[in-house]
């Protein structure tokens, strides 16, 4: 239902599933997964308070069971996204750093998403050197895990915008954005992402 935009129906189904899991397996993975799903729907509806509460409940269950699993990293990133949407960059940065710490502990490196999120926060804070470092690490990981994917395109787009908005190398910005739009046009033609990157290219030119 989420894919069709029927958020009310989606939330209803997730809540029915949650009620069943809470009855037959309270505190188990099924409850945590349902909480995450309902929180995701709340984010789509723009209900940040509800989303934050649900993500926190999910995180509490994970800490009780296996506090340092990668699922906890995902929930921390989601909490960071809530904080970012609220404009609380300091809280968002803290959540993303906590996620990165778990990822580095478990797999030896951060995820492209956590690093990319830290890069965006650093950009908004005006720390362009840190932003560039985070975004380049994010790009390297995404290119290794899924070359020519939409994740790679997003990393290229973020780096291109950074070079443009920080009075960086416009030739580099153009190259990065052109690479991004090539991937977007192949993987998601006629999408909003294509339009946004074309707009960024126009700004560079």
Description:
The chain is an all-alpha fold and 205 residues long. The chain is 81% helix and 0% strand. The chain has helices spanning 7-24, 29-45, 48-65, 70-86, 89-107, 112-124, 128-145, 150-165, 170-187, 192-204. The model has no long low-confidence stretch (mean pLDDT 92).
Structural class: mainly alpha
Could you say which overall geometry the principal axes of the C-alpha atoms support?
globular
Distance between the termini: 41 Å
Q: Which residues form runs of ≥5 with pLDDT under 50?
A: none
Summarize the main sheet: none
Please write the string of helix (H) and strand (E) elements: HHHHHHHHHH
Give the strand tally.
0
Helix content: over 70%
Strand-residue proportion: under 5%
What's the gyration radius in Å? 19 Å
Mean pLDDT: 92
Quick summary of this structure?
By secondary structure, the chain is an all-alpha fold.
Which key phrases capture this entry?
globular
Layout of strands and helices, then pairs:
Elements: H1 7-24, H2 29-45, H3 48-65, H4 70-86, H5 89-107, H6 112-124, H7 128-145, H8 150-165, H9 170-187, H10 192-204
Helix pairs in contact: 1-2, 2-3, 3-4, 4-5, 5-6, 6-7, 6-8, 7-8, 8-9, 8-10, 9-10
């Amino acid at each position: 239902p989420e894919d069709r935009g029927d958020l009310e129906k989606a939330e209803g189904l997730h809540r029915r599933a949650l009620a069943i899991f809470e009855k037959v397996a309270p505190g188990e993975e099924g409850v945590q997964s349902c909480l995450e799903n309902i929180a995701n729907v709340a984010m789509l509806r723009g209900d940040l308070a509800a989303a934050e509460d649900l993500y926190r409940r999910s995180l509490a269950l994970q800490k009780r069971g296996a506090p340092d699993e990668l699922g906890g990293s995902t929930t921390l990133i989601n909490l960071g996204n809530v904080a970012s949407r609220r404009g609380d960059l300091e809280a968002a940065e803290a959540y993303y750093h906590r996620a990165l710490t778990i990822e580095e502990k478990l797999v030896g490196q951060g995820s492209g998403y956590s690093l990319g999120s830290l890069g965006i926060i650093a950009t908004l804070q005006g720390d362009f050197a840190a932003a560039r470092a985070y975004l380049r690490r994010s790009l390297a990981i995404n290119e290794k895990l899924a070359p020519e994917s939409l994740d790679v395109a997003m990393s290229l787009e973020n780096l291109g915008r950074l070079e443009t908005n920080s009075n960086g190398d416009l030739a580099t910005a153009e190259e990065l954005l052109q690479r991004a739009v090539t991937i977007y046009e192949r993987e998601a033609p006629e999408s909003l992402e294509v339009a946004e990157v074309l707009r960024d290219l126009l700004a560079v030119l």
